[in-house]
């Protein structure tokens, strides 16, 4: 594998394979249904993979959110949960884990990542503010805008390149940051947000060097930094692989360094600790007090924040496990394997491989589908039809409609194929690669989509679409001609 890639185990053939460093002891039966059933299912789901029933899905690669496999120790910890409305021991164990792993003393529990975004946005954003960031996440943008703010993405020129060797495509462009503060004025910039393993641009990390440069600019203007740590484990892993200063550091040291640079750290536990839930932490008492009262109002009392105490126990263990390299490198290892195989087959995919999932470029995959017919959505639907694998559209369907009635076309049209930690095997991964390869060879059969029911906010979740022609039927006919009865 390339320098900077997660290390596989070397086989005698010379190949490096991401051998699983865990054993599977609890399993869940999967269903690989016939292609006609899959076609019916996607039609019933309005060509939106969010609206599928998992009974119809073979490999669920929609997200890693709340779907990472938990460890034996996490499951065991759930049995010692302390049910108490206030003062639960489970909370104090979770608080101690956050203090140890992130180095932040003051902890606010929330029911998931977007709830942290609600609390932070309500507390710190006023109408007319602008929030600089490496890139937005859908829920982040929605919460900031609802509170009157505007996001400003100040990524580097490398960030949106599909094919790249840049190790840190999640970096902030320092000059753009300086220009932005000069333009809007310090009083309109409540904080700078950095998102670890930047989700919507392909799970791409930033470097600590970049964080330190951002910190310098922030200090010059007295602006605070907020870290979205939902995918911090993987970002730390990439820093260890790709940033020379940290090559011999432990993951714990890297996590502490990253969190130490920012005043506020928040996270979705659905990702970082392989559980459900979320949290906000800081060492600044004033900031803590400003946010604190919103937690009982929106989430629940300060010692559960809307979470089940069982999840809180599993979070405590999961956070400590985030410092274990075999845990945080498993998903990047499989993603790296998949990206390299797809790349070899000529399938357009974001490089270098990042965190969370493999990201296929639908614009190059389906150059004949105009962006206003949602190529990434069409590709997600087509892949489901031919494989039962569910990915997620991350393109214009996930964007918004402007007041003039036109879509705000997304910067990228991506099909995201998530690899939740320790969930899939290598043969399942090979099946995915094979079906995607077949689809690529038959890509001219895939057509576009149109909205038939479009919600005003976060339309990608519940929106319903339809095919612009009978392309799904034609795709099914070709599949049957090539595979016969095989699934
Ligand atoms: N921040 C980032 C970087 C995320 O990836 C997510 C969720 C959130 C915040 C919101 O957290 O879902 O717990 O409320 N990402 C999921 C995904 C939904 O599929 O990528 P949440």
Description:
The structure is a single chain. This protein is α/β, with parallel strands linked by helices and 487 residues long. The chain has two domains: 35-63 and 327-483, Aspartate Aminotransferase, domain 1 (Alpha-Beta Complex); 73-323, Type I PLP-dependent aspartate aminotransferase-like (Major domain) (Aspartate Aminotransferase, domain 2), CATH 3.40.640.10. Helices cover 40% and strands 12% of the residues. It contains 20 helices and 14 strands. The strands form five sheets. Strands 3-9-8-7-6 form a five-stranded mixed sheet, sandwiched between helices. Helix 1 (35-44) packs antiparallel against helix 17 (375-387), helix 4 (113-124) packs parallel to helix 5 (138-146) and helix 17 packs across helix 18 (426-441). The chain is globular. It starts with 8 loop residues before the first strand and ends with a helix. Residues 63, 65, 112-114, 137, 139-140, 195, 199, 228, 230-231, 268, 270, 278 line the site of ligand F0G. One of its GO terms (biological process) is aromatic amino acid metabolic process. The modification N6-(pyridoxal phosphate)lysine is found at residue 271. Belongs to the beta-eliminating lyase family.
């Amino acid at each position: 594998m390339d320098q900077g890639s997660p290390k596989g185990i070397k086989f005698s053939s010379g190949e490096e394979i991401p051998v699983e460093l865990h054993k599977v002891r609890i399993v869940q039966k999967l269903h690989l249904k016939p292609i006609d059933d899959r076609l019916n299912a996607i039609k019933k789901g309005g060509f939106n993979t969010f609206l599928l029933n998992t009974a119809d899905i073979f490999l669920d690669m929609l997200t890693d959110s709340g779907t990472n496999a938990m460890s034996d120790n996490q499951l065991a910890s759930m049995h010692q949960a302390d049910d108490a409305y206030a003062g639960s021991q489970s909370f104090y164990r979770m608080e101690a884990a956050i203090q140890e792993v992130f180095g932040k003393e003051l902890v606010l529990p929330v029911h998931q990542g977007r709830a942290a975004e609600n609390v932070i946005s309500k507390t710190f954003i006023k109408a007319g503010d602008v929030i600089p960031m490496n890139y937005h996440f859908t829920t982040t943008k929605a919460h900031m805008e609802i509170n009157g703010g505007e996001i400003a993405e100040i990524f580097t020129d490398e960030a949106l390149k599909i094919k790249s060797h840049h190790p840190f495509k999640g970096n902030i462009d320092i000059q753009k940051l300086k220009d932005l503060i000069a333009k809007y004025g310090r009083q309109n910039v409540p904080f700078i947000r950095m998102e670890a393993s930047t989700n919507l641009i392909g799970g791409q990390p930033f470097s600590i060097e970049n964080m330190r440069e951002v910190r310098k600019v922030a200090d010059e203007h007295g602006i605070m930094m907020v870290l979205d740590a939902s995918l911090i484990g993987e970002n730390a892993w990439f820093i260890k692989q790709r940033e020379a200063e940290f090559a011999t550091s432990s993951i714990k040291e890297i996590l502490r360094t990253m969190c130490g640079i920012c005043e506020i750290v928040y996270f979705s536990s659905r990702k970082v600790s392989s559980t459900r839930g979320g949290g906000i932490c800081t060492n600044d008492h004033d900031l803590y007090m400003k946010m604190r009262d919103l937690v009982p109002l929106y989430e629940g009392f300060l010692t559960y924040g809307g979470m089940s105490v069982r999840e809180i126990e599993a979070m405590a263990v999961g956070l400590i496990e985030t410092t274990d390299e075999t845990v945080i490198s498993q998903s990047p290892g499989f993603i790296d394997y998949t990206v390299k195989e797809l790349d070899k087959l000529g399938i357009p995919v974001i490089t270098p491989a990042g965190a969370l999932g493999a990201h296929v470029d639908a614009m190059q995959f389906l150059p004949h589908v105009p962006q206003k017919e949602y190529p990434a959505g069409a590709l997600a639907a087509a892949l489901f039809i031919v494989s039962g694998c569910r990915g997620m559209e991350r393109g214009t369907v996930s964007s918004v409609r402007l007041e003039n009635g036109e879509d705000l076309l997304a910067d990228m049209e991506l099909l995201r194929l998530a690899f939740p930690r320790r969930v899939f095997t290598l043969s399942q991964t090979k099946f995915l690669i094979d079906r995607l390869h077949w689809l690529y060879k038959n890509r001219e059969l895939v057509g576009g989509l149109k909205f038939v029911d479009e919600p005003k906010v976060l339309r990608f979740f519940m929106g319903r679409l339809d095919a612009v022609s009978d392309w799904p039927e034609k795709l099914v006919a070709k599949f049957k001609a090539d595979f016969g009865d095989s699934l």
